[in-house]
Specification:
Strand order of the largest sheet of chain A: 4-3-7-6-5
CATH topology of chain A: Beta-Lactamase
Oligomer: heterodimer
Largest sheet of chain B: none
Order of helices and strands of chain A: HHEEEEHEEEH
Distance between the termini of chain A: 54 Å
Low-confidence stretches of chain A: 12-30
Mean pLDDT of chain B: 94
Number of strands of chain B: 0
Radius of gyration of chain A: 18 Å
Largest interface: A-B, 17 and 21 residues
Number of strands of chain A: 7
Strand content of chain A: 15-25%
Helix content of chain A: 25-40%
Low-confidence stretches of chain B: none
CATH architecture of chain A: 2-Layer Sandwich
Helix content of chain B: over 70%
Distance between the termini of chain B: 35 Å
Structural class of chain A: alpha+beta
Shape of chain A: globular
Structural class of chain B: mainly alpha
Order of helices and strands of chain B: HHHHHHH
């Protein structure tokens, strides 16, 4: 009986621990409903690492709008630059499995061509374009961080997420990303 | 009963090896998802090839006994590994799978030498298999784009396995060797005359 109680307690503790470690929980000083660039970088890094660990079986969780990859007003989407298709998208199931390279924003920018180019670098990169904000009717300026995901028996997969922001520039956000990636670039005080 | 004709387990082993290898490459080059690889890996490449391998024991063919049983187990292990990843059972990362493949590369290198003593077709199959494993090893450690190269290369390997399967089946049903497998790449050195004389004297 005691052993059984212990097992139950251990399971509860393990589940609580797992929940605490899930990528869905990121402390932030930003407003409650607006994702920050730091959150975007953390989520995209976590997503890339998650797919590296889990392989193809990890893809499905990116199609869930209630999953860990959707938060505040942002979300992680997964696409294949080699095969030209959307692999997973939590809010646009209509795009999943479809070609992406021809998708343009209202300014005629080839969004995924630029994302693939930016995400191809070692630390990924930022791309600005126009996209519909979740829950909004019209398009907003979106600036997204793209990064490759190294998956067993696959090549060319990238993950990305973005912030809806009228001011932030790709160059500033690249500096932010470098700072986050390199402890030496953090100010000492 | 003693005169009853027995089938050659290799026809099933080569069929399962070839088909499952082929389907994994269809995934590796991006034509399809991983789902069918998992189920075929368990049943045809795995279970059927492993049973064929175990049946090789009674034919006295140690090469087939080892190769089919081992590659049958490879497919079962790979399928369970992919299923395990889905259910968070001992999750295998890309580099974990890379090390798994490296071990199989080393094992394949041993059988590759043995295959060169059997026939040209088998030597070519194992050369392609070893090359494919090496490409996949590199793909899992820093050169992901080689996954696609390995994909096409291993399709040729799978086709070679089917060629040997067809050689065995067609020879049986047509009553003559329709698809020859060729001489071994490594042949027995001609025995010196003196050795033959000694052997003859003893007999």
């Amino acid at each position: 009986m005691r052993a059984k109680t212990l097992i139950v307690a251990a399971t509860v503790a393990a589940l609580a621990g797992a929940a605490g470690l899930s990528p869905g929980r990121i402390a932030s000083a930003a407003a409650d409903d607006v994702a920050s660039p730091e959150e975007v970088v953390s989520k995209v890094w976590a997503a890339s690492r998650f797919l590296n660990e889990k392989g193809a079986s990890g893809i499905a969780s990116f199609n869930s709008k209630d999953g860990p990859w959707v938060w505040k007003d942002s979300y992680v989407f997964v696409y294949d630059c080699r095969l030209d298709r959307m692999v997973a998208h939590p809010l646009r199931p209509d795009l999943v499995g479809r070609p992406v390279m021809q998708i343009t924003d209202n300014n005629g920018k080839l969004i995924f061509k630029d994302l693939c180019k930016a995400g191809g670098g070692k630390r990924g990169g930022w791309v600005e374009y126009l996209w519909t904000k979740p829950g909004a009717g019209s398009v907003s300026r979106k600036i997204s961080y793209a990064l490759g995901a190294d998956i067993a028996f696959s090549t060319g997969i990238q993950v990305a997420a973005g912030v809806y922001d009228d001011k932030a520039s790709a160059a500033d956000l690249a500096k932010l990303t470098d700072k986050m990636a390199d402890p030496a670039k953090y100010p000492a005080h | 009963m003693a005169d009853q004709k027995l089938g050659n387990p290799a026809v099933v082993g080569l069929a399962g090896f070839g088909l499952t290898t082929m389907v994994l490459q269809f995934h590796n080059v991006g034509w399809m998802g991983i789902g069918p690889v998992v189920w075929l890996g368990l049943i045809f490449g795995g279970f059927a090839q492993m049973v064929a391998g175990l049946q090789e024991m009674k034919t006295g063919n140690n090469f087939g006994y080892c190769a089919f049983t081992a590659y049958g187990c490879f497919w079962i292990a790979l399928a369970l590994l992919l299923i395990g990843n889905h259910y968070n059972l001992y999750v295998s990362s890309k580099s974990d799978i890379g090390w798994f493949l490296i071990a199989w590369t080393l094992f394949t290198a041993i059988l590759w030498v043995g295959a060169m003593r059997i026939s040209s077709a088998l030597a070519l199959t194992f050369t392609l298999l070893l090359g494919g494993f090496i490409l996949l090893d590199l793909a899992h450690f820093g050169f992901p784009e080689l996954t696609v190269v390995a994909g096409y290369e291993l399709m040729a390997c799978a086709a070679m396995a089917w060629y040997i399967m067809a050689h065995l089946i067609f020879a049986d049903v047509f009553g003559r060797d329709v698809l020859p497998v060729g001489k071994p790449w490594l042949r027995a050195p001609a025995a010196p005359v003196s050795a033959l004389k000694v052997a003859g004297a003893k007999a």
